[in-house]
Protein: Helicase C-terminal domain-containing protein
Amino acid sequence: MPDLDLEIHKCCPDGIRTPRLEALLRDGFAVHNTSLSEGERQLVETAFGAGLVRVLCATSSLAAGVNLPVRRVLFWSLKKGVSSMTATDFRQMAGRAGRTG
Structure:
């Protein structure tokens, strides 16, 4: 299992710029949204894939693009932005559970 400090240094050599992300990661939680830098997103995905993150929260716009094996996908709302999520959107996001790619 990779060391979180080493992953932080590799993915974010200038440090994590999003407040509280490092504390969340150390507690096994993470967020994946547009406010993260590219390095921070890579860090979250690497930490999740390595089992260092047990709970990942993502916005609906990014949830469809998170290719990580998970057991469950929970939906807070069936809205995607201001409009309702289509059946295709729902299947795309829910279908990512348990498979990579």
